[in-house]
Amino acid sequence: xxxxxxxxxxxxxxxxxxxxxxxxxxxxxxxxxxxxxxxxxxxxxxxxxxxxxxxxxxxxxxxxxxxxxxxxxxxxxxxxxxxxxxxxxxxxxxxxxxxxxxxxxxxxxxxxxxxxxxxxxxxxxxxxxxxxxxxxxxxxxxxxxxxxxxxxxxxxxxxxxxxxxxxxxxxxxxxxxxxxxxxxxxxxxxxxxxxxxxxxxxxxxxxxxxxxxxxxxxxxxxxxxxxxxxxxxxxxxxxxxxxxxxxxxxxxxxxxxxxxxxxxxxxxxxxxxxxxxxxxxxxxxxxxxxxxxxxxxxxxxxxxxxxxxxxxxxxxxxxxxxxxxxxxxxxxxxxxxxxxxxxxxxxxxxxxxxxxxxxxxxxxxxxxxxxxxxxxxxxxxxxxxxxxxxxxxxxxxxxxxxxxxxxxxxxxxxxxxxxxxxxxxxxxxxxxxxxxxxxxxxxxxxxxxxxxxxxxxxxxxxxxxxxxxxxxxxxxxxxxxxxxxxxxxxxxxxxxxxxxxxxxxxxxxxxxxxx
Length: 515
Ligand code: FAD
Ligand code: DLZ
Ligand code: SF4
Fold this sequence. Notes:
The protein is mainly alpha-helical.
């Protein structure tokens, strides 16, 4: 009897554990376009199209190797409403000796997967996902007993373990582990970022685009203009383009934002990387090669490697060692619903309008846009973490809960009470003004606090500091801010808090009705 090997949509690596010992003469690979995966939250159509197209291309590549792939398309009648349903049907079809699958990227799916063996009546072997640079066992050992889990220490261990950017004496290249301080420049007005490469949809992708437009066109997000890399070869080409044209400036302008330019010097590889089309260690090594070849400076290469080798692995470790309780925490007791403008972009606050619109159009925004614009607003306004998490999971093509949740819940919202971030990433309009040109195109002024045209972020910021005093005043890194607030005097603070309340009360909260 065959072994049935299930490959999920974000497991599109030839080296995935479930395919490890495949016998092409005997086994069947199962892939399922599952309605439930598209709708448990209403994913951005671009994200669905990207995954379906990447899945179909991956299936074709396996078939070209002589492997039998049973690919269940969404538009086949009666097929694959969910992973479980699709698997049950396939087991009935093939009567396999056993089922082999790789552990998923979301707790929700793992919980379900644990019940599959009983449901289908054949052994289900759930294999570890070997595509990460820190096995979860190692992360557990590293985290065990530590009260706070700072990324920086984890990252240094990872640099040593993988021998990246080390001198022959195992010291950090250049004498420092971290060049983040050099990576906070605003963008000079005359500096243009090169356009990222566009990948014109082939016939297979066009078919997917039609399907997704018909089925999910009513979800938040734009499908037109789809040009994402959907094969390993295209993703490699996209990464090459980044190394050649954007990596040299990636570090210096990592935190910068500019009106109308969502990509700047970023790599744009998160969606193909998280789906399995790229290998993280390979990306780090190729960036390191660019440094040794004198093509890119150390602050750029170290900054890039830190994101992949450090942050990406670290948030995954946090997710799997802390779930399911992690998602339930709400350290700052935030309960406000999500304002409607997160879905419509309709707000006078230009920075938010820009980021929501770019997110709608591209299923992408870069890190500082996610953290310091939409994330910062949600933090300051005290929006319910569950609502914010759901939004981030829906809108970004790279979002799977293992990476989205710690970034949103922990880093942006401080809902975990500081397990992940050493202090809340709260900022006033001054920060956004320094790092972008958004304020120049805004009806509000970041320099004003109480006037009618004062940037709402300013009042919201002081309201946040005052409101969260019990938690934030205990934080050593926030003491100065509380001292500053005390010096401002009660009357000023009261006026700012009134202004914040009036502003928040004036927002619309009902989600827009779609179709
Ligand atoms: P670059 O800036 O070029 O960075 C290179 C790579 O480093 C990224 O592709 C990514 O794989 C990795 N990386 C960078 N920062 C992080 C990080 N904080 N955590 C994990 N990996 C990182 N990233 C996701 O992949 N999926 C998400 O759902 C996601 N949600 C986020 C939510 C919030 C609130 C915030 C603040 C960040 C989130 N990130 C998420 C991290 C980061 O914003 C994206 O990885 C990045 O913007 C992707 O664009 P890029 O490929 O051009 O990244
Ligand atoms: C995100 C997603 C979507 C939209 N659709 C599918 C699908 O139809 N079939 C599939 O195998 N995977 C899909 N995915 C990715 C899964 O949601 C992902 O594998 C799980 O969340 C575990 O990480
Ligand atoms: Fe955003 Fe305030 Fe600047 Fe307007 S003034 S763009 S709301 S930070």
